[in-house]
Structures
1.
Amino acid sequence: MLDIKVDLKPHFQRRTTPYHPTEFGRLRSDHMFLMDYDEGNWHHPRIVPYGPLSLYPGAKILNYGQGIFEGQKAFRHDDGELYLFRADEHAQRLNQSAAKMCLPPLLENDQLQALETLLDIDRHCTPTQEDSCLYIRPLLFGNEDALGVNPSKSYLYCLFFSPSGSYYDHSKALRLFLTKKFHRAAPGGSGQAKAAGNYGGSLYALQRAHELGAFQVLYLDVNNQRIEETGASNHFHVNQRDGVILPRFTDTILESITARSIMSLEGRLGIAIQPESIGTDAFIADIKRKYIREAGVLGTAMVVGGVGEYVFDSGKVLSVGDGRVGPITQKIYTLLRNIQTGKEEAPEGWLKKVPRLL
Ligand code: PLP
Ligand code: COI
């Protein structure tokens, strides 16, 4: 059990009116959780007003990117209570990413305690409008002021919230940039972890994607043989038998908790969902001959979205199906969102009600 010191903003400085976020990730709740690590121990767990951190310019995270993050969500249900979606899975994955980046693990129970305590304090910051959520961002990074290229001797764990709207307009099909020139992750690298550097390294190709009118980059493996994932989500398609195909997870793909959740909803959806290794050339040929009926992206922030077009390095554009958000994509989105928001029953253990401690 953590002994969390709580130092709150005076009431008059706290949010009193409901949030109506119009975008993802811009707004903040009133407080954040911080905890330090050095000499083999986590210590000084505290909740303080959300604000800037103090870091030395020589901090490992700033110089060598030794840091990871997670992304998860909480939703207010019609009973007025706040529910976390798959919080235990996210806590586990934080430790998997931590191991990959030589960061110290943080007990899952301690992560959950920190999260529930901060959520209870800032529960009033949860938006309720259509497509909104309280987005949760845990960070863990090396903050030692030392320039040797080796793991930091000290770390900071930080947890903060963003009252968020949708990442994009779910009614519109997205265009993805399918490129053979840019790559996200190599075998044996950190692609499977939510390492900060994976995202920094993806921005250059994302810029090109935006020039081509695309929303995200759809990355291939380094040999351009297989479809992998986008810079911020997994990717799927629907084949001519109405089966959903996800890429088989490798060490160059982040194992999405959304993807795993959807796979276990197969029965309820009445759709076969399976992972496969997806050859790039076969994928493109199957889109052209309309064997691929729909495609989409999925992840915590993205939820489930339809892909209507791919644009290639040449600038040529290829439509998928009829170019709109497909019915199977829509069905998966609706079930997932209904489960998260309490409108349909959640599988055992997926939702955790945030206890009222105050
Ligand atoms: N792949 C990448 C690169 C991501 O950043 C994300 C987002 O978290 C995902 C996949 C989807 O993972 P999850 O569903 O666990 O959020
Ligand atoms: C998430 O889906 O939670 C992510 O972390 C993706 C992106 C916003 C970086």
2.
Amino acid sequence: AVGLDVARVRADFPVLHQRVHGKPLAYLDNAASSQKPKPVVDAMTAVYEQYYSNVHRGVHQLSQRSTDAFEAARNKVAGFINAARSEEIVFTRGATEALNLVASSYGRRFCQEGDEVVLTHLEHHSNIVPWQLLRDEKGVQLKVAPIGDDGSVTAQDVIDLIGPRTKIVAISQVSNALGTVVPVQEIAAAAHAQGAVVVVDGCQAVPHQPVDVQALGADFYAFSGHKMYGPTGIGALYGRYDLLTEMPPYQGGGEMIASVTFEQSTWKKPPHKFEAGTPAIVEVIGLGAAVDYLAELGMANVAAHEAELLAYATQRLDAIEGLRIHGRAPEKAGILSFTMDQAHAHDVGTIVDRAGVAIRAGHHCAQPAMERFGISSTVRASLGIYNTHEEIDQLADALGVVKEIFG
Ligand code: PMP
């Protein structure tokens, strides 16, 4: 398809068609979590109503159907981010678990005291804290690349920190707090030249632009289903197959073993080695449906739609006196993080909610990025496939009310 038919997209999302405080809902909190289209909800209902069963171990018909659908979803996810093979997709609870898996399994096995992990200042807490846990256990050093005044992170600023002791470079592709797009490809090439592996937090990229993990040079790539119009409780870790093969299990239990005796157990091959216990069967199948949905829209169309909306929203918000947008990197995704002279972020959030507008106020799990700009919180409007100019206008008008009340 050429271009996004937003009216058609909106028709797929029942939840959008409601009033909040008597006003039409304008859902602009997509970076926190997105809404779910009918095909995702229907796919999940179909599992429960027609063929629900545990996977991978049943000889009976329902189990085979569930297993087929489950593994088909893995194929879809692999294709969506251009993994070389579906065995490179490990299902996790979300990006947080995916990043913890890499830090625990790869980090503990391959990092020694004095080795270095390179991060950026704009990381989400879930791409900071797992590395701090590794630091405290193994004595690795964390090096943090700075954020420029416009919210950008340049490749050079990260590359300057990469040296012979660098084992891991862990960076977001897109900042959830500022919208900044980080030049992952260039950084990855430099990291590989020093023998480091590259871990990418792709939470805010996968739902909004085409992603090709091989072209990016990502060795690991983490993302969450619930931000890409899929269910909660499911996400994925892409890992290069040779690396997954070398890594120890993350958790032990059923599903991940080849054999168990009290003396010794052996593991299945990746990805099953990293999927201990009964997985989130229905959520995995729902994630597969979300991938189908996005693939059908076309990620280039999605990106173009959101870029156009971002430009419009930036212009509308810039016209509001006393409002400051934080994060104006030249390469930016559909996230508008701002403060207002007149009012605290939480007050802004409460007032625009009265106008039917759902946005987020807070530190967005990126306290260091907030601190970089001398603030503790921002108001954040984050865009998705179903958002419209009218909703941006609704937000801007509501911010006008904030000014009246506090101004
Ligand atoms: N990284 C980024 C950039 C995010 O935006 C988020 C979610 N806000 C996460 C990681 C964590 O994702 P989850 O809570 O779904 O595990």
3.
Amino acid sequence: MSEVKILNSPAVKNMPWQDKPAGLKNAPVWRYSENPIIKRNPIEGVARIFNSAVAPYEDGFIGVFRGEQTNGIPYVYLGRSKDAIHWEFEPEKVQFVNEKGEPFMPNYAYDPRLVKVEDTYYIIWCGDFFGASIGMAKTQDFKTFTRIENPFIPFNRNAVLFPRKINGKFMLLSRPSDSGHTPFGDIFVSESPDMEYWGHHRHVMSRGSEWWESLKIGGGAAPIETTEGWLLFYHGVCGTCSGYVYSIGGAILDIDNPSIVKYRCTNFLLTPEEEYEERGFVPNVCFPCATIHDSETGRIALYYGCADSYVGLAFTKVDEVVDYIKKNSVTNAVDTSLGLQ
Ligand code: BMA
């Protein structure tokens, strides 16, 4: 095994973990035996929680959760946990305000990500800005959630922030789209000096290199900084005669120029195969949104939505997963370029 290390990330006390089961085949990513960790009807007025993001906070963990309300509209709910497995949710949805502190609620919000950059936590979601688009807010205390400018005009359905500035700029992965169940999509990266003005857009990687990701791809968890580059867990979608199938893929991006893909795993890392992934509100969905990772041990816990119905947890180790991605890497000239055209 190589000596790949997680960089610029603290050790995590109470890291959620389960050892690799004997006889695991294929990618070195294994499910938590008690999955799903969040089941149906978790909050009064919320039928399902899935596609959600968590982070270490104070002496435990905090998360922003996609709660599908009983009126069918998705919103963001806050949850806290001591062990990152058992979660307690606030009964009310997150109350967003504008810069003046006045209520400023999105019409709806789904697939939230939670990323700490320096001393601020950013929440990024898909919402409505005259069509599907990216919404953002910031908080330092998880009491006040202040909206910041929408980074892009419509349509864009999937955005993930890097956990530190690169060359002095905030960096955001996103997937330009249409407003429906978009049947296409590649990952791009954009940079900003201030989290308000976004530009220098670059193409990162395209759908289509493998069958399991032949329709569209999108950023998943915030990239993890490692000695080999940014480790990205993303989702890849293929179309079948009974609908889309969402799997989890892995790639490693260049540390200073993340539009350059150094390695891209030709195999999926996880694909729907358990009952809670294959059966639900939308069947056959594994949708990664966050990791908790411990720089001391290299352990990674991956949080993913299951069948638009539950939250699942899977584990891997940074050295094993990076080795697997490198060993099974297939890139093309578009992936490995700076992404200008
Ligand atoms: C995508 C997003 C996800 C969802 C997936 C499968 O377009 O809307 O929230 O998990 O479809 O339904």
